[in-house]
Write a structure and sequence with these properties.
Blueprint lengths: L1 E14 L2 E14 L3 E5 L6 H8 L7 E6 L2 E2 L5 H11 E4 L11 H6 L10 H11 L15 H13 L5 E5 L7 H16 L3 E6 L2 H4 L4 E6 L2 E7 L19 H17 L2 H39 L3 E6 L3 E2 L2 E2 L11 H9 L3 E16 L2 E10 L3 H4 L6 E2 L4 H5 L4 E4 L1 H8 L8 E4 L2 E8 L14 E5 H8 L7 E6 L5 H16 L9 E5 H44 L1 H9 L4 H38 L7 H28 L2 H6 L2
Parallel strand pairs: 3-8, 3-9, 6-7, 7-8, 15-20, 17-19
Antiparallel strand pairs: 1-2, 1-4, 4-5, 9-10, 11-21, 11-22, 12-13, 14-15, 14-18, 14-21, 16-19, 17-20, 18-19
Helix pairs in contact: 4-5, 5-6, 8-18, 9-16, 9-18, 9-19, 16-18, 16-19, 18-19
The protein binds adenosine-5'-diphosphate and magnesium ion.
């Protein structure tokens, strides 16, 4: 079986409008074990011929059999596998990876092709080319001759039956030239088929046969010595690497390239980093706002309905709320008799009051309500007790004070048992109210609570009440109830709808759903903002990946020459972009948590760090890495090996 059998092979390049023929109906046979030189002037098509033979390039027409196998119609994957297991390349420019040492460079093909104990084999090959003491040197620490010997060791690691060498001595001094030729002679003696392109007659003298090429045609052949016969082997085995051993190798390559370009990796991850910080803190803020609103509502009591008297229009003039007050204490019994769904109800009056304790003054709100106000509004005292119905009926001079009042008048000390002057009337403090926080409009803790009748008769001098506050049964829909209670009150007080919005009815359920709706809109906006910043981060990654692919075009070509499939290249670059983006995501997460913590500490904002937001940030950065890494990876994967190798 012939190693190489070429019939009528032609190739031309299209330059502008004219076809430019590089190879013109070449016929060539190379036996197994032969050492053949291809000679000819520069530009005669030698390299092109060698690249077609090495499956790095395609011919336009003609047939080509490599070890008896017709290869013109094979897919790029099969061609990669053949290159990986049957072919070794030696190039004029060595094509070593500059950041990897000699050993790593020699091992590179083992990434794609199954080679048992690659490191051992690589060390053995390096020893054979006399570099046993240079195993950990990087290319820039080696002379040209030594670099080419590394390349020869690399070509041999998969023990290929055939070696293609394109001007292997072209960049070397005369001493190194001879050393390299001696290596090739040694390989020839070991039984390798070698095809070498050269334009130096002294180098061609080492070969069995010289083929002279000119203008893309073989012009004559010169037999130097009779090729020695080697036992023919059937070259049909493929040793393509698969599964985890392939992926883990690619992962290591990606990690290596990312860590050897740390600054670049960091800079490209920066966009994602800020994006994730943004997502984390924004979502934490949103969650926090939601939580504090929810807390406020739960402090108000569930299913609470408040009726207030509003302004009454007369002749187009709107009267202030309270000017015409239409609610009175009798409404309480009337409403609870009429509406069984009202679980409890209290009339409420409000006013301002000047408080004096010892030599301290404080202007505060005073609220009067009945004894059930405690359970209606969740006002279980933190200190002392609530007032009783009896105290309310007796108009007792007792009060409960809110946190702000305690802070201002008592410097935070327990107020229970003391006497306080409210509008110059002396009251005994019987309890301290639980903290309710601020609604944003009003500090709910700046309040003194007294029994309803005490407030109306002894403090504020009111006949009418300001609010009716009631709690509905859990499953009662407030919507129906609101219209019913409005018409009931209109009927009772001889008013009607046309007189204006006299009874304003607010249900907490309604307000809560309105607030949570606003909250959702807010969250959506914030997420959109965070998404935009992550997208910008993704575009940043894509840019840098594209630059990196362009910069590493030659490396990509080399990997393909050594047996990498398109998918191997794609996966490697996808892993790189995903790892970059994940790194950004992770650092962003750490910074984000710090930011959240900082905001919480320094502004006292309610912030909730939620696991969904962390998961979201992570998922998003992986997705961004894949999406924005896709195009650069695809571009890299589709590069033709020869275009990549020829690029300078
Ligand atoms: P040699 O190796 O014998 O010096 P090559 O095989 O490298 O010659 O090139 C043969 C001819 O083909 C040269 O004239 C070169 O300019 C041309 N050539 C090579 N590659 C390309 C290409 N990608 N596009 C157009 N012309 C090319
Ligand atoms: Mg050339």
């Amino acid at each position: 079986m012939l190693a190489i059998e070429i019939k009528n092979l032609s190739k031309s390049y299209k330059i502008g409008n004219s076809q430019f023929s590089v190879l013109n109906r070449i016929n060539l046979e190379i036996k197994q074990g032969e050492f053949v030189a291809i000679m000819g002037p520069s530009g005669s098509g030698k390299s092109t011929l060698l690249q077609v033979m090495g499956l790095l390039d395609h011919a336009d027409s003609g047939s080509y059999r490599l070890f008896g196998k017709n290869v013109e119609k094979e897919s790029s994957n099969v061609l990669s596998d053949i290159r990986g297991s049957l072919i070794g390349f030696v190039f004029q420019q060595f094509h070593l990876l500059s950041k990897s040492n000699a050993l790593q460079n020699v091992c590179l093909p083992s990434l794609y092709t199954e080679i048992p104990n690659p490191v051992l084999v690589a060390e053995k090959q390096l020893t054979k080319v006399g570099l046993q003491n240079r195993v950990f040197h990087t290319p820039n620490e080696l002379s040209g001759g030594q670099q080419q010997r590394v390349a020869i060791a690399r070509a041999l690691i998969n023990d290929p039956p055939i070696i293609f060498a394109d001007e292997p001595t072209g960049n070397l001094d005369s001493k190194s030239k001879i050393e390299i030729m001696m290596e090739l002679v040694r390989l020839h003696e070991e039984g390798k088929t070698i095809v070498m392109v050269t334009h130096e007659p002294e180098m061609a003298d080492y070969c069995d046969r010289i083929i002279h090429v000119s203008d893309g045609e073989i012009i004559n052949e010169e037999i130097k010595r009779k090729a020695k016969m080697i036992p023919e082997s059937n070259q049909n085995f493929m040793r393509r690497k698969t599964g985890w051993s392939l992926i883990s190798g690619l992962l290591k390559q990606s990690l290596f390239s990312l860590t050897s370009n740390r600054l670049r990796t960091f800079l490209s991850a920066l966009g994602i980093l800020f994006g994730v910080v943004c997502v984390i803190s924004v979502m934490a803020l949103g969650e926090g706002a939601k939580k504090s609103v929810e807390e406020q509502f739960s402090s108000l009591g569930a299913n609470l309905v408040i009726v207030r008297t509003g302004g009454m229009r007369s002749g187009g003039v709107s009267l202030e709320a309270g000017t015409v007050n239409r609610l009175d204490v009798n409404d309480v019994t009337a409403v609870s008799r009429k509406f069984p769904e009202v679980k409890q109800i209290s009339a409420v009056v409000n006013g301002r009051a000047q408080l004096v304790f010892g030599n301290r003054n404080w202007n505060s709100f005073v609220t009067g309500a009945s004894a059930n106000y405690e359970s209606l509004r969740n006002l279980e005292p933190t200190e002392g007790r609530f007032f009783t119905e009896e105290e309310d009926n007796k108009r007792a001079l007792v009060c409960l004070v809110g946190n702000t009042v305690v802070r201002e008048l008592y410097e935070g000390k327990n107020p229970v048992g003391t006497y306080i002057k409210i509008n110059r009337v002396s009251f005994r403090v019987i309890g301290q109210l639980p903290e309710k926080g601020s609604t944003g409009f009003r500090d709910q803790d700046d309040v003194v609570l007294v029994p309803l009748n005490t407030a109306m008769r002894r403090l504020l001098n009111k006949d009418a009440v300001d609010n009716l506050e009631m709690e509905l049964d859990q499953n009662e829909s407030s919507e129906n109830f609101i219209s019913q209670i409005k018409s009931f009150l209109h009927e009772r007080h001889g008013t009607n709808e046309s007189m204006g919005n006299i009874y304003q009815v607010m249900s907490m359920a309604d307000i809560q759903s309105a607030v949570s709706e606003t909250n959702q809109t807010m969250s959506a906006l914030l997420i959109a903002l965070a998404t935009v910043s992550l997208l910008v981060g993704g575009i940043g990654i894509m840019n840098i990946m594209l630059v990196s692919v362009k910069e590493r075009t030659k490396e990509i070509g080399l990997r393909k020459a050594l047996g990498a499939r398109e998918s191997d290249i794609r996966i490697q670059f996808l892993i790189e972009s995903t790892l970059t983006s994940l790194t950004g995501g992770f650092v962003g997460l750490v910074f984000g948590i710090f930011t959240v913590y900082f905001l919480q500490k320094s502004f006292g904002w309610t912030i909730v760090l939620s696991f969904p937001s962390i998961g979201f940030a992570f998922l998003f950065s992986i997705t961004i890495g894949i999406i924005f890494g896709w195009w650069p990876s695809e571009y890299a994967a589709k590069l033709s090996p020869i275009v990549a190798l020829r690029s300078e």
